[in-house]
Amino acid sequence: MTSQTCDRVDVARAAGDGARSVPGAPPLRFGNHPASATERVLGQALRHAGKLAVRDWKFDATDLVHTRFHGRPLDRKTFNDSENCVANAPLRFDKTNARDFEADPEEAVCWMLVRPCENAHRLGWTVQGFDAFNDWFYEHVVSI
User: Fold this and answer.
1) The model's pTM
2) Is 115 within 8 Å of 39 (Cβ atoms)?
3) Which of 30, 39, 45, 58 is most buried by a 10 A CB count?
């Protein structure tokens, strides 16, 4: 997976078409909700239950390393903007933004699927297609 120039309009079209999978990966089912919205809702459900959502866990781990290397804490908004770059691209497109932006859309989509799956798992739920996706993820992304 490599970073490339992406078009905000194309990203919005893909989201509107319900594209919620990674090329070559088995599909996951989140009902009719885009993965990013599902992640947000399940993350909030975890927080209400007093549990750590995946994004919070990832921020805490990244902040620890960032603080050690840079001598200052990581800004949560900067972290979240980076994590949501592809999902937010169509939402944050006005006269101050260029139509093109740099991102790795396959990696972004992959993590937009992993985070809600893990949040669902932390809530004790089962996601249809998760086992096949997880096997693909470990083989092609993590390379185990």
Assistant:
1) 0.69
2) yes
3) 39
The residue behind tokens 């909030």 is: 44
Residue type for position 118: E
User: Which DSSP state fits 49?
Assistant: T
- Which among 41, 21, 34 has a CA at the least distance from the CA of 123? 41
Burial of 14 (0-12, 13-18, 19+ CB in 10 A): middle
- Helix residue spans in 1-144 (DSSP H): 8-16, 35-48, 54-70, 76-83, 85-88, 105-122, 130-140
Tell me the three state secondary structure of residue 50.
coil
- Reported as type and span, the H/E element at residue 6 is strand 4-7
Q: What is the share, in percent, of the chain residues with pLDDT greater than 70?
A: 77
Q: Where are the domains of the chain?
A: 4-14+33-140
The one-letter code for the residue type at 54 is V
